[in-house]
Amino acid sequence: MAAEPPSSPLPERLIAHLDMDAFYASVELLRYPELKGLPVVIGGRREHAPRLREDGTREFAKLRDYTGRGVATTSTYAARDLGVFSAMGLMKAALRAPDAILLPTDFDRYRHYSRLFKAAVAELAPVIEDRGIDEIYIDLSAVPGIREPVGHDPLGGIRSVAREIKNSVLRATGLTCSIGITPNKLLSKIASEIDKPDGITVLLAEEIPARIWPLSVRKINGIGPKAAARLAALGIETVGQIAAAEPAWLIEQFGKSYGAWLHEASHGRDNRPVVTFSEPVSISRETTFERDLHAVHDRAELGRIFTRLCEQLAGDLERKGYQGRTIGIKLRFEGFHTVTRDLTLDEPIADAQALRRAAGSCLKRVNFDKRLRLLGVRIGNLSHPGDAPPAAKARKTARGASAEAPSGAARPETLPLF
Ligand code: DCP
Ligand code: MG
Q1: Per UniProt, where does Mg(2+) bind (predicted)?
Q2: What spacing in Å lies between the alpha carbon of 20 and ligand 1's midpoint?
Q3: Which residues of the chain carry a pLDDT beneath 50?
């Protein structure tokens, strides 16, 4: 029998990016299956939870009845078809999809499902980098069988490992995800979006010109709205146009590190390893007072404490080598009522003054009619100052407590402020 022609060798590294489909919304559909296929938006307050009618059916809140300043954390694909996306103001969303169902955000539940899907993947492929609540990178390079062709398909082993991972996630959670598998993290992050939802996309280096170059520059994780606008002003809209540009010109326009990175990224080159140790999600400092303090009467003292917390946090950041984009505060009032607020900046910060400024602006969104017993400052969305480019997802700005303005007596107060 004639020898089979050697198939082109698979790359040394096979990296997957797995991203859950419409994650928060899909978790909600697990408990409200009657909403399947309907436009559903997540981002309401507790009062928007469905009510059980006497006949056992549920009555859901409609987007048209929403008032307030909350934003959508995510939406089902049916709602996206109507033009409602993550981070959109809910009142604006109501204009586009008045009949869409509105549900409150239930972070604890999403965190629970996040742990479940990651554990399910870890049983099959343990080299996992945690990238947040609904996405991970997985190093599949050494997974048994992955390099074996299936029939005439040299990528058959890769596809069947991907299918196994997806099945295992589905069994553990009832949820679907999309997977991209390529030689590196940069390409896999792009690839996982190509066939969303419930997709598998395998992409090798030789396919970059055909499949990556036609894409918008925004598909590259690390090209945010600002860089994209600057590229557009230079006449560059697609990844291929970056690839066609002279590296020296890119460096001239964007500086040495970002310009060089743009060139590498547009050619799909990325050597970053899958980092399995978990980086801290956030770093915080807090203090409980000896006696409860009042925002007006004890203003000076509170101001001093607040400044010191920011200085300590800045010290922590420096020692550990981090900076961050999301700054949050935590306040506990007498009676143990706890309030958090946060704010996501465009650029990461690390020094005490910038922290104080950002945390101070969060304070403006708090009502101070009770005495305080605890004050805390937190920084999240962390990166390392040397990182190029910032790894954070610029579009994910609506997470956490700040996704919803304080309910009820939500009067944005400017005073008292300490
Ligand atoms: N999220 C958020 N605020 C945003 C974007 C996202 O709170 N501005 C939350 C809700 C999402 C989850 O993070 O469900 C995951 O974000 P993705 O960008 O992966 O969006 P989805 O999983 O909802 O949809 P997709 O199917 O496009 O991945
Ligand atoms: Mg997702």
Answers
A1: 19, 134
A2: 8
A3: 1-6, 390-416
